[in-house]
Specification:
Helix 1 packs parallel to helix 5. The chain starts with a helix and ends with a helix. The longest helix has 31 residues. It is an alpha+beta fold. A six-stranded antiparallel beta sheet has the order 3-2-1-6-5-4, sandwiched between helices. Strands 8-9-7-10-11 form a five-stranded mixed beta sheet, sandwiched between helices. Helix content is 45%, strand content 20%.
Length: 382
């Protein structure tokens, strides 16, 4: 491959990773770009899991052999099987000078390969009908991160020293792309996470609830929302200080997370101030009410605070059609407001007090009957 084509391939690889959405997209773009740049038929990207002493495959692309899934759940290899990997895994390259790529062939030693290695890769090449591979270590932030692997089928020209050098360059580009993807993932995580409790934040709830309501409208999936108001936070803040109030919020956040685990896939979130919620998609309304009941019980046992006012609204209950996230939020909030007014020690559930349910009436009231809580939620973007 000429210099111009190689330069174009490097640019295409970098652009592909930059345009990818999320880490998985970046991994796939890295493998696809490297495979094309090196004229391979197959490529894989693997990460070194230090604590487990193994290389775990993140993505396989191209002509995959039997058992090679695109995003494998648990395809991994003990690093002790590959001495050439253990040679660099514990090293640091803070000042540059990353380790060079090398070539293996199904016939044995090849150009760019240092002598003395065990031949597990050679056996793997033969088993999968491949003629050669080039392996490029990936170094991230001065430390070994994993490897880029590109293979060609049997019967075509094998990789040479120039290909190995080019693979080293590609690995450096991949490392830069991975670093950028990880920074973006962290930024996204922070954008959807409450800093104090570590739970999801209101923005995350808004997004997930909109998606859930679309599913409900499409196929009837049950969507349930638990809205909680932590009682006594202002008193704690006023009498014991905000640091103690923050501790109460953190402890209740842990209780909410624990109870949310009773509902597979539920999202536990802090909406702001003393307001929290659980969003469940799939579990029945009764399962959600059971989790909310446990939440009330545990909140009442906290050393700080005065328990929690808890309201539940589920599309499975008699609350009328739910065509928007806004309506389900208003119903759950109205139930929470009633629980607070009644000083209820258990959750109030919208739609379970007969045809003239006061919660549903409150949620559906016109402007003249609108509660302060409902006005507050009316301004919430959902």
């Amino acid at each position: 491959m000429g210099e111009d084509k190689r330069l174009s391939a490097v640019v295409a690889l970098a652009q592909g990773m930059a345009a990818a959405h999320g880490s998985r997209g970046a991994w796939r773009a890295a493998a696809v770009g490297a495979c094309r740049a090196l004229g391979g038929s197959f490529a894989a990207l693997s990460v070194w899991e230090r604590e487990l002493g193994r290389l775990r495959v993140l993505v396989n692309v191209g002509e995959r052999a039997e058992g090679e899934d695109e995003f494998p759940e648990d395809e991994s290899y003990p690093v002790h099987q590959f001495p050439e990997i253990t040679e660099f895994l514990h090293e640091r390259w803070a000042g540059g000078g990353e380790p060079n790529a090398w070539v293996e062939t199904a016939e044995g030693p090849a150009a760019g390969r240092r002598p003395g290695y065990v031949h597990q890769r050679v056996a793997a090449l033969r088993r999968r009908g491949r003629g050669c591979c080039v392996v490029a270590p990936i170094v991230l932030n001065g430390r070994a991160w994993g490897e880029l692997y590109v293979a060609r089928p049997a019967g075509v020209p094998v990789f040479d020293r120039g290909d190995a050098d080019f693979a080293t360059v590609l690995a450096a580009v991949v490392a830069a792309g991975i670093a950028q993807a990880e920074r973006l993932e962290e930024a996204r995580r922070l954008a959807y996470t409450d800093a104090l409790t570590g739970l999801a934040n209101r923005r995350a709830v808004d997004v997930r609830l909109d998606e859930a309501i679309e599913r409900h409208r499409a196929d009837g999936t049950v969507v349930s929302l638990v809205v909680c108001d932590l009682n006594g936070l202002k008193r704690v803040n006023d009498t014991r200080g905000h640091a103690v109030g923050d501790r109460l919020l953190e402890r209740f956040g842990s209780v909410l997370s624990l109870c949310g685990a009773m509902l597979p896939g539920a999202l536990a979130a802090r909406l702001g101030g003393d307001e929290f919620c659980l969003l469940a998609v799939g579990p029945s309304a009764d399962e959600v009410v059971k989790a909310a009941d446990e939440l009330c019980r545990r909140a009442g046992e906290l050393e700080l605070g005065e328990g929690v006012a808890c309201g539940v609204a589920s599309t499975e209950d008699a609350i009328g059609p739910v065509r928007s996230a806004r309506r389900l939020f208003r119903l759950a909030d109205a139930a929470q407001y009633r629980a607070k007014a009644l000083r209820a020690g258990k959750p109030v559930v919208a739609g379970r007090e007969g045809p003239d349910d006061p919660v549903v009436r409150l949620a559906d009231a016109g402007p003249s009957g609108e509660s302060p809580e409902r006005r507050r939620f009316r301004g919430r973007p959902t």
